[in-house]
Amino acid sequence: MTRTIELKATPTLGPILAKAAATGFVRKGRTLPDVRVVQHGVRIDQGALAAYDQVCGFPVTHLVPSTYLHVLVFPLQVSLMADKEFPYPLMGSVHLSNTITQHRRVDALEVLDIEVRVDNLRPHFRGAQADFIATVKVGDEVVMDEVSTYLFRGQKVPGEVPLKADEPEPADGPGVTWALTADLGRRYAAVSGDVNPIHMHPLTAKALGFPTTIVHGMWSKSKMLAAVENRLPERYTLSVEFKKPVLIPGKVKFVAGETATGWNLVLRSAREGTVHAVGTVVSAGADGSIS
Fold it and tell me: In this protein, which residues make up the domain named MaoC-like (predicted)?
């Protein structure tokens, strides 16, 4: 029987991350828990939304970017990963990809119901991966679906390990260069609640195996969406795969190529050309199907 964890308020993520880190070494399960995390009656803080818009490059309006709905989903994801029945350590997990389907624009005054569950545990050549599936509703209407795939490094699960695929080089061409400041990780953490130490300071990032601070993958996705959102229909699916960490401070180049159904998006290092993220936006029909 599915167990439900109902959050009465949005949790502060710092204590949850600390608890998850402290209990990570005792997590030894092999199966995903049959549990869902829900939060009803979520109201958007318009000041917090405006601050997020400014950090990510969206115009400040009463409409909610679909990636900001991820910000509301994220505490439920973390709560599920920190649950005692979740088999893998939260610290050290890697966000591999994120897919958001926006069914319609959400107004900042609307009241939301959010649900998150986890499914599809499978091998990865670097460990185990699973999908965190979120649904955001206004009343009975689904306004956004999301699938976030996370890697749990070094973990073993039954099944054939997929080989690392040789992927084609994403298209390059004229684009826009963004200069990323050293405090970008802290600024995005302040508007998203994601205070993972790898994003906060060079010393804590180095302690966790990175040469310096890295920017949040979801900031990259949000910034790419902000660059093309005014050319998108109300209903779309935006998928992004996170390839290489973006070290800050630094410069990245964003390239967007229009297709018959939407856009191809690429984020590269402005200096070396290293691919940091690749994505697609496709228009969705009224029933959520891809057109």
Answer: 181-256
Task: Give CATH for domain 1-155.
Answer: 3.10.129.10
Q: Where are the alpha helices (DSSP H) in 193-253?
A: 202-207, 217-228
pTM for this prediction: 0.92
List all residues 6 or more positions away from 114 whose beta carbon is below 8 Å from its beta carbon: 38, 39, 42, 72, 73, 76, 134, 135, 136, 137
> Two tokens at 120?
């599809």
Residue-wise pLDDT for 139-163, tens only, equals: 999 999 999 999 998 888 888 887 7
Q: What is the pLDDT of residues 201-230, one digit of tens each?
A: 989 888 888 889 999 999 999 999 999 999
- Where are the domain boundaries for CATH 3.10.129.10 in the chain? 1-155, 168-291
DSSP reduced 3-state for 61: coil
